[in-house]
Amino acid sequence: MPTVDELKADAKTNLDDVKNSCLTPMTNKTFCGIGFSSTLLKKYEDEYSLLKKKKEEADKDSTGKETKTNLYKDVIKASESLKKTLDGEINKALYNEIKDTYPKCKTCMADINTDNAKTRLMEQVRTQFSSDIKE
């Protein structure tokens, strides 16, 4: 069973991962220059903020080890779910952008779907793809 300190570290790592690998790039349009709606971003930013606040409350909580443990576990579980949801949104947007940019290229679309678009495009491909979209 993980200690409270380990759970605290895991919660922080998960929240940082959500922010750095999903929310920030979505906001800054660094996934091939794809923009996400402000409504969608606000929804996920709010969800992230609530999780961060819950973690901060657990950090300050002095009621006991069990309460902290449960709060950290809740944050970890919810942040993993949020990351999965955000990855899905990113993959869907990338897939649609690829489909719109290369509609008749069966080779481009053969192995890419809404579940794996983000991971199927290596950094160099994403950079070139981003350039192609802007042209």
Task: State the gist of this model.
Helices cover 78% and strands 0% of the residues. The chain contains 6 helices and no strands.
Largest sheet: none
Instruction: Give the domain tally.
Output: 1
Distance between the ends = 54 Å
| Range of helix content | over 70%
Poorly predicted regions are: none
Mean pLDDT: 82
Strand content: under 5%
Report on this structure.
By secondary structure, the protein is mainly α. The protein has one domain. It is built from six helices and no strands. Helix 1 packs antiparallel against helix 2, helix 1 packs parallel to helix 3 and helix 2 packs antiparallel against helix 3. The relative contact order is 0.14.
List the main descriptive attributes of the protein structure presented here.
135 residues; 6 helices; mainly alpha
Per-chain topology:
Blueprint: H1 4-28, H2 38-60, H3 65-101, H4 106-109, H5 117-120, H6 123-134
Helix pairs in contact: 1-2, 1-3, 2-3
